[in-house]
Structures are given as C-alpha cells and as structure tokens.
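Case 502 in the screening queue. Each case pairs one protein sequence with one candidate compound; here the compound is zinc ion. For every case the pipeline is the same: read the inputs, emit a complex structure as tokens, and attach any notable structural observations.

Predict complex for case 502.
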Amino acid sequence: MNIQLKFNASAHSSDELVILPSFSKGKGDKATLVDSDWTKELRSTFKTIKSAGTFKGAKGSSFQFTTTEGLSVLIIGLGEKSDYDYEALRRATAGIAKKISSSNEKVSIMIDGFVVKNKIEESMQAFAEAFYMTTYHFDKYLSKKNKPKLKTLFVESSQKTTALKKAQAAFDHGQKVAECVNVGRDFVNEPPNVLNSVTYAKEIEKDVKANLKGVKVKILGKAELKKEKMNMFLSVNNGSAHDARLVHLEYTPKKTTKKTKHIALVGKGLTFDTGGYSLKPGGSMMNMKFDMAGSATVYAAFRAAVLLSLDVKVSCFLGMTDNAVNEHATMPDSIVTARNGKTVEILNTDAEGRLVLGDVLSYASDLKPDAIIDAATLTGACLVALGTEVCAVLGNDKKLTDSLLSAAKETDEYMWPLPIIEEWRDDMKGSMSDLKNIGGSSFGGTAKAAAFLENFVGEGVSWAHLDIAGVGDSQKHLPYCPSKGASGIIVRSLVRFLANQK
Ligand code: BES
Ligand code: ZN
Ligand code: ZN
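Case 502 output:
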C-alpha cells in the first residue's frame, strides 16, 4: 500500500474514488450539512440525489454516490466543527482506511477539509498514524490471508508545493510511529509456543541489528542474572523450560550536550503467566501471552525514538521469562533476596511481574538516568480501578508523572494518576522478611504493586510506573486498534514524552 502526497493538485489522481469531508451544524432535526472543499459541480450533483437529503455530516456517518462522469465520491461526516480535533481525525481516518482498503485500487482524498485548525503538519502526522495503525492485521497464522485491494492512496491538497516538504516529513513521522506500534503489536500477538524468553530476545536483537543503526545491545542470560544477584527475577524463571533473558538496549543521539536527558525504559516481558503454583483458573489464564505487552510497549517507543533520531539518550530494559510450573518452580512462602539486598517473601507466585521488575529497576538505577519509566500488565486491579480504557500512572516524582500525563493528553491516550500512600507502603512490609509480594487485602492492588516496586528504585532516581493491564489489548472503542489482540496503546504517549525531553 502506497500513499502519495500531492500538493497544488489540479485534478484528482484517482478516477475511481474521491473522498471529501463534510461537517454538521446544529443538533437533531435542525442539523444541517456543511460541505467543505466541494466543487460547484459536485454540490449540484449532490443536491439532485434524493437520498442525500438525510445525510447531515454527522460524526461517523458517510455517504457515497456516483457523478454523471462515473466518478465515485465518498463523503465523510465529521460532526460539529467546534468538536473536531486530532482524535476525531484519527477516528475518521480509521473509518476511511477500513472502507477503502478492500474496495478500491486507487483512491484520492482531498485532505484540506480534514485538517484540524489549519495545522497541516500535525494533521498529517495524525492521519498517517491512524491509517497505518488501522491497516495492521496479525494474519501470520491464517492459511487464508485477506489481501487489501488498495494499491495507492493520493492525499491531495490545494496548498502550495512549498508546504509539501514539511507536510511529508510530518506524515513520515506518523508512519514511523505507527510502524513501531505495529512491531510491538506483532510481538504481543505471537503465541507462547513460539515466543519465549529465548526467542523473544533473539527477535529483538535481530530487529535492532536490521533496523536500528548505532544501538548497543546487551543480553544477559541466566548465568549473568545470577551474577547480578537478581534472585527475585530468577525465582519467577525457576519453573520455566526457557532461561530468562534481560535485554539491555542503548541509544545515544548523534550530538549530545550536558543538557541531553537520559531516560531509562523498563518493560515487563512475561511471555506467559500461568500464575505459577498460585495457578490462575483457566478463564483468567487465557490471553496471558499478552503479559509481555509492557516490554513490547517500551521497545516500540525506544524503536521510534531511534528511527526519529530524537534528541534524548534512551536505555531500554526488557525482563523476559514466563511464569510456569515444573518441579523447580518457586513455592509460595519462599523468601528470596533481591538484587538490592532487600528480602522478599513470595506469598503468591502470580504476583510475579513485580519480582521481575524490581530487580530490573535496581539494575537500571545503577546508570543514574534522569528518569526511569516502567510499563507492565501488572495488576488485574487496574481494570477494576480504571476499566479497560485507561492506563494508570504512579511514581515517586510528581513532575515526572505530570509530564507523562501531558504527553498522553497530547496524543489523545487515556492516562490517569493513582496515589502511593504510606499505609500501602506499610501493607507491603513483611514480618519474616523486609517485604512481601502481595498486600494484606486485594483492595488498592495497583497502587500496592507500585508501592512494592518503589523499594527497588535507586536512591534519588525519578521513577514512574505505567500499569497497562487494561489498555494493552482489545481496545474495541478505538477504531484504529484491532478489536481483538494487542493494541499498541501508550506507545504514542511514550514517544511524545521522549520527544518532549529536549
Ligand atoms: N499479569 C497479571 C495481571 C493481569 C491480570 C493483567 C489480568 C491483565 C489481566 C499479574 O501477574 C497478576 O497475576 N497479578 C495478580 C496480583 C495478585 C496476585 C496480587 C492479580 O492481579 O490478580
Ligand atoms: Zn501473575
Ligand atoms: Zn503477570
């Protein structure tokens, strides 16, 4: 699928289908259609169509007709202009992408009327993001693949060709971000009989070598993790047929100064979570291949930072293992000593993500980055607190969590803060060990997990934790996400956060 930007376009490049925007003014029966960028001829043809009378440009609606010259025209309803924003553009783009990818080979879209508040570049970026995020399909294991019909989409504008360069750059930016989102989605959708800690680490290394020039890769295996005294992490790996892996990636921008920020990203990479001895019931175990979505999310953001040559140093740490049961699996009541020397009583082997992350956070802290951000499908409690649509953010530095919240707002992703209070810190303290891995009650589970993680962040290091248990997959309300499977949500927030670090 090829998308071509055409500025100062005098005629449509496609003689098959042309897409145009429309808005709506007023509500209910009083609603009227506001056309946008339509030619005189089109307007008069439209008026002669009887059924067109009911089309008022409502958000999510569309109307298709054929002109006397035989050109198909698809009018997209964008709703009230005053409500129209980048997210509305993304959602409209998703609708368009779904409609045209299986119906036509060549399509022209008149983009000017779709531009939000005259911001052509930002709009181009949002359009590209949404288009490529929508046309993603995980069909690797389908014997019959649905090949899209669409070959070329011409994005046409009446703007001068001098504006093309910047618009193209913004479009390319959006495309790169979406591609990274899709790389992350591919990892998450891969089944656990294919993707385990060993194959996952290899695939990441392969992708880095092939696509991310200049990035340093270090992979720690079981022996190195033992040397690092990551006993919490290793305790999760005890019951597995595959050795744990810690992937450490480093990106340094070409020009660095004293002001260049260093951000560490940490991701939970549980290639499958059975719960271990504290076994999950069958229904809850289903889909636990997605328990590595945190690692895929931070990798996707890291990948985008490199491809966009962002002006920030980024270290990325992916803690990989599954949580399985064999005769070596960790038994509940076990007490282990974490990398930072704290002792932890493992009362529930299903609260395993925090054990992996704790040791990796301690490892990442040694680099003394300006901030550490971890992402993890950490708690079912997050779905209770914020539903499946909102990502939780917690941490030890309000400035950091605020800047993540801003980045999420700027990219129209839902993120909301939760507190870590003293009582919850106390609840995570053990009686026979410094800490225990679950609280006394399951209430406030997301924040108690964060209260546990906080213990492993180095002294004076800013840290934020993103619980993506709800948003990691099946975002049915977002038309640019697959209704089933990996969502790639939060990658765009992280990329924006990294871009904001200059
Ligand atoms: N990976 C799960 C969290 C999860 C559950 C994500 C459901 C998405 C949907 C995590 O490892 C886990 O099992 N957490 C336990 C913690 C509990 C034992 C304190 C949970 O949430 O039930
Ligand atoms: Zn678990
Ligand atoms: Zn888990």
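Case 502 observations:
- The chain has a mean pLDDT of 97.
- Residues 273, 291, 348, 350-353, 377-381, 438, 445, 469 surround BES (ligand 1) (CB under 6 Å).
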